């Protein structure tokens, strides 16, 4: 007889997620050999829902540090592989099958997958490739109180197993509460570590999501300034240019929107989001030559993404499926 297939622990941290948790848990039924849930103080039906799904639930008071609680969930897991899932996410059936197949490869330790975020109304979707599954023996940990990131080690691969993030389709009240919590944590991190471009970048993204365009533009520029012209840093925080360009577009300054797009394309000529905003600039100007160029590049890059998402690395893309406004 051959070796049994590796076991998979799905690890979650939750608080007051009774509305979204059932669909998240249902999406990994049959995929997870073990469900680990760290609850940070739910007062609704979250814990009962998790327990009904046979999850192992552990209680830790909220410490304003997502990485700390994420690592707690990893510490409780006993599977050969750990898969990290949020309550507002669902794993597709095809994605679960692809990940189970990839886990059989002894040459792989770390797996990145596309995380797709549809916008309310369905007119746009964003996507980024994220490390979400890794062998427990690697000892991988998370860092960062907010927008925590994996301390990446091991032999890595990419699997096109789409994880759908529903966090932008919440009620207005929940979106606002989410923004206030995230912005507060980011401002605290900026005070603690003012030289890191990460914190103003993510603050800019949060502000932009809530349509605080002038403030978002300011924080994105702050992040770029902290990159000090270093090509690797500018590439890492490339989406700052999208925040600036789309904010300028929303504020009606087409010249500054184009300028931000050109700056981004000087860093990466295949940056899809810059071509998307440039398409909108050309459309508003009735500049047919620019419209033809920008829209053509945008369509080409969208098709390239559809064919091979790994080509775009870990740079978030905000304008997939977007039509010029």
Please describe what this structure looks like:
- The chain is an alpha/beta fold and 325 residues long.
- Helices cover 46% and strands 18% of the residues.
- The chain contains twelve helices and twelve strands.
- Strands 1, 2, 3, 4, 5, 6, 7, 10, 11 and 12 form a ten-stranded mixed β-sheet that branches.
- Helix 1 links the parallel strand 1 and strand 2 (34-39).
- Helix 6 (198-209) packs antiparallel against helix 7 (213-226), helix 9 (239-251) runs parallel beside helix 11 (272-285) and helix 10 packs antiparallel against helix 11.
- The protein is globular and about 60 Å long.
What would the average pLDDT be, to the nearest integer? 91
Largest sheet: 10 strands, mixed
The strand count comes to 12
- Kindly estimate the percentage of residues that lie in beta strands according to DSSP: 15-25%
Mass-distribution shape:
globular
Along the chain, the helix and strand elements come as: EHEHEHEEHEEEEEEHHHHHHHHE
Question: What separation lies between the terminal Cα atoms?
Answer: 60 Å
Q: What is the tally of helical segments?
A: 12
Low-pLDDT stretches: none
The radius of gyration computed from the alpha-carbon positions, rounded to a whole number of angstroms, is 20 Å
* Range of helix content: 40-55%
Oligomeric state as shown: single chain
Sheet/helix structural class: alpha/beta
Question: What's the quick description here?
Answer:
The protein has 325 residues and is of the alpha/beta class.
């Amino acid at each position: 007889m051959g070796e049994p297939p590796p076991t998979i622990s799905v690890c979650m941290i939750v608080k007051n997620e009774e509305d979204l948790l059932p669909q998240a848990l249902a999406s990994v039924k049959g995929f997870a050999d073990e469900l680990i849930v760290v609850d940070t103080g739910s007062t609704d039906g979250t814990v009962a829902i998790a327990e009904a799904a046979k999850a192992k639930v552990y209680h830790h008071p909220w410490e304003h540090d997502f990485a700390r609680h994420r690592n707690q969930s990893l510490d409780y897991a006993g599977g050969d592989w750990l898969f990290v899932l949020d309550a507002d996410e669902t794993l597709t059936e095809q994605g679960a099958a692809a990940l189970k197949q990839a886990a059989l490869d002894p040459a792989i330790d770390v797996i990145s997958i596309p995380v797709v975020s549809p916008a309310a109304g369905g007119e746009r979707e964003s996507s980024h490739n994220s490390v979400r599954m890794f062998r427990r023996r690697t000892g991988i940990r998370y860092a960062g109180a907010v927008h925590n990131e994996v301390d990446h080690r091991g032999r890595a691969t990419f699997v096109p197993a789409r994880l759908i993030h529903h966090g932008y389709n919440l009620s207005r009240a929940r979106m606002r509460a989410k923004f206030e919590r995230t912005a507060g944590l980011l401002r605290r991190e900026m005070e603690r570590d003012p030289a890191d471009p990460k914190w103003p970048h993510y603050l800019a993204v949060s502000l932009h999501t809530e349509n605080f365009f002038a403030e978002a533009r300011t924080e994105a520029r702050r992040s770029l300034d902290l990159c000090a012209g270093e090509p690797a840093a500018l590439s890492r925080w490339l989406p700052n240019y999208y925040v600036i360009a789309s904010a300028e577009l929303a504020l009606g300054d087409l010249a500054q929107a184009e300028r931000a797009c050109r700056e981004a394309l000087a860093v990466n000529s295949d940056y899809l989001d810059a071509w998307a905003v440039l398409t909108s600039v050309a459309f508003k100007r009735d500049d047919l030559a620019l419209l033809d160029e920008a829209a053509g590049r945008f369509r080409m890059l969208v098709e390239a993404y559809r064919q091979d998402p790994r080509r775009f690395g870990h740079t978030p893309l905000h304008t997939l499926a977007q039509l010029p406004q």
